Amino acid sequence: MDKIDSSKLVFFLGGHDAEMDTIRGILTSKWILQYDKNLTWGAKLSDYSEEIKQLKSEQVPILVELNIDISKPENALVIDHHGEQAGIDKETSIEQVANLLGIKLDRGQQLISANDRGYIPAMKEMGATNIEIEKIRAYDRKCQGATEKDEQLSEQSIREQSEVLGDDKSTILITSLTDKTSCVNDRLWIEYEGKFTDIFIISPPNTLTYSGSGKMIKRLRKYYEHQKRSDGSIEFWSGGNLPEYGYFGAKPALSTDLIKAMVEKPIISQHIFMFPFKIEKNETEKNQSRNRKVDGQSKKVDTLRDKYYNLLKNDGWEEKIYRITDTKLNYNEFVYFHDYIREVLFPNPYSENELQSSIYFEKSVDSDSEMVIHIKTKNGPIRYYLEIDHVALRLFDDEVGILTIELLNYCYSNIDDILKINDFGRRIYPQYLGINNGIDAPKMSFFPDRIEFKLSKIFTDQTFGLEDFYDASLDNTKHRHLKVAQYITRTLGDSFCRQNVLSPVIDDRMFVICWYGNSKLISSLQEWNDKEHCFNYENSDIWYKYVFIDGNDIGIANRKMMHELIEDTTYSRWVEWSTLFGISRYSLVCLTDRSLFAYNYARVHMERIYYQIAVMLLIQRTSIVKFSDNAAEISKEIKPYINKSNQNHQNQDDKPDLNDIVEKVRSCDEQIIRFTNTLCQKEITPQEQGIEIYQKGLTVMEIESNLRNLKEKVHDLFNFVDLANERETSKGIGVFTVINAVFLPLALLASIWGMNLYFMNNFYSNNDTGLSILSMNLISILVFGLSLVFIIGYTSNLLGEIKQNSDLQVTDKKFLVKTLCHPFKKCFIRILGIIMLIIMVLTIFLPNIITLILKWSK
């Protein structure tokens, strides 16, 4: 803070404590103008409204720890160390005043500053003695107005109205008889020597005071921020040595039951977003692959781990080695599944088997990792703060993968909030764009306005705009692959996404796994309705929206159909034990009460075991889509072999090589066989409940029927390839047949002229003159020349016909005869053919006439 002429400064002091009283003493010693009305915590600028109006233009107001509830002067300076200004790296108010005045704090003042920043632990870090600490704390209580009566009431409150919470017994909840909570806190620290790390105090008039971990303070702030949306009278404040530890205060206080739940069962809901995707080579990789093929280079096929290990490691992923001896939960999760499924779900990177079907990686998550979902509503914006608990990546040998992001909700207990978190949090790109209002249309329905995503060193803050998903200036080629939210690609890694093209499988949304504990809601849904002869959940809009992830309006307007869909997607084995499961194409959800059993078992089962069931279902669905796309691409390549109307106009050099198509079909079939024998199983666990949930998932996602359709498509491709091979073989035989036909006239002439005919024997005699011999030679040359011209003309026209009709089949006799006779449609060929025919007839059948003519010529 820059130093200002102290004669122009006017200080307005806030709520009194040791720090504020010390600041007042410093100002008094420096003869600096100040206003102090001995206010308590929560002091407001409006308390000095009249004094502010009387300021001269050259005077600079300094507002010390005052809530700015009215407009402040433009040249005013705010000094505070609470709320957003609090933190381990921020100056306390007394330090800010000292810097402004250009003075140095003495030891006592430094201890006052440490006390304000981090209470007793901060003073101990400075090396304060117990006497110094007790002196500072007594001074602080006195400045806050604590009396001897308050000291007595604090002792009584601890003795009679306190409750120790948590498994480790480090949390205490006290209903205080005095509003001077510093008396209660100090007595706990002094008498119990810091045994309680988390202290909740409910004091009159209905005020909550908490001191402890920064994580709990963060949760309390988020909870009260959300509640303030519907109740503007709510107040809350915080400070201290954040984000490590500090204090928090709020009005009104939380109920004791809610405080106990926040300590013993803090998770209200658990959300696992799963992003299944297909992996394709980018254009550079495709071109390199084509070049290697053209050059005839052979490359060793890498294992799944060889292909991706270094790439993922560079992006911050760490390969996870699953050991069942690490925790009891690991053991329970491992033994739940059949042995052949364990190899898929829990891959061993050091296995001797090079043909591993999957690899598994995780990213480190720190205490500050969180996802903030910003939503636009008609009543104003909403923010949901969710802590990131786990991030994992699975890749499979059929070039598909699943990114998993697990989020924990500690603040929002209303079912409407849970529905919005699921629906808005799962979206990765807009489902549609409004004609007039673009991306604002889906934002008002189910698409988030903004996502903040902080994961260790990765931080993404993206306010979604039209340009993030759509750019009209680009050509269609560049829009073949959809753009997804940045936090997805940043989490996967820049190197991984740069080398590969990732295509979402479940359109614009991720798959959702959600556990939610709400005793009141499950109690109403599990009641039997005598009038309808069913449980209430079977006709419940809320249950339908929870299963089908409808965040705002329900996505159905047919009560009968809704009842049928609920029946098809609900697993109700434990409904009378306050537990319901639902599974749809897009979700696996569980609703329970808030009992310890539900919290410690049903929730953990959803997080570990049923999550693995969802992985198996999702990877099957993803792989089938991937194989179907491959089959569709192969079908495009065989189109030139099917569509005869285009064959005459298509450049034969542009046709895909049939051998390449055969290899692609064979490779696709090989992958499907491996897929059906490793990933696609009818049963994955011997446990009855797991079998039932898995079977319901197979049915709802139509995996078995889709797999049958896929196999039929590949079978059809094989049939076509066999037919195409036969056709190519027939074409080759046909070409040889035509070649033989081409040389037939020449062979015929050669045989005729080479026969031992009578007239040939008399062609020459011993009495022949040179002139007669010359005449005979000229006639022979003439006949041979005509034959040669005929053969050349006939052959060229026949080859042209063959080129146009490349689909030549020797089995079709009419087609073959038609092809052989086609050159005779040319007038020139017909004339030559007639002449040659006449010559041959005359030569064979009229030898005497020819002989007479020859003798006459002599």
Keywords for this entry:
single chain, 858 residues, alpha+beta, Rossmann fold, Diaminopimelate Epimerase, Chain A, domain 1, 6 domains, 13-stranded mixed sheet, six-stranded mixed sheet, 32 helices, 25 strands
Mean of all residue-level pLDDT scores: 85
Ranges with pLDDT <50 over ≥5 residues? Answer: 645-649, 756-760, 807-811
Q: Could you give the count of β-strands? A: 25
> Which percent range fits the helix content?
40-55%
Largest sheet: 13 strands, mixed
Structural class: alpha+beta
Number of helices: 32
N→C terminal distance? 133 Å
Bulk shape: elongated
Using the CA coordinates, give the radius of gyration: 44 Å
Number of domains: 6
Q: Could you explain how this protein is built, in words?
A:
Helix 4 crosses helix 5 (130-143). Helix content is 47%, strand content 17%. The chain is built from 32 helices and 25 strands. By secondary structure, it is α+β, with helices and mostly antiparallel strands. The model is unreliable at 645-649, 756-760 and 807-811 (pLDDT under 50). The strands form four sheets. Strands 11, 12, 13, 14, 15, 16, 17, 18, 19, 20, 23, 24 and 25 form a 13-stranded mixed β-sheet that branches. It has a six-stranded mixed β-sheet with strand order 5-6-7-8-10-9, with helices on both faces. A four-stranded parallel β-sheet has the order 2-1-3-4, covered by helices on one side. It starts with 8 loop residues before the first strand and ends with a helix. It has six domains: 1-145, Rossmann fold (3-Layer(aba) Sandwich); 146-264, Diaminopimelate Epimerase, Chain A, domain 1, CATH 3.10.310; 269-511, no CATH class; 512-612, no CATH class; 628-726; 743-857, no CATH class. Strand 6 (171-175), helix 7 (181-192) and strand 7 (198-203) form a beta-alpha-beta unit.
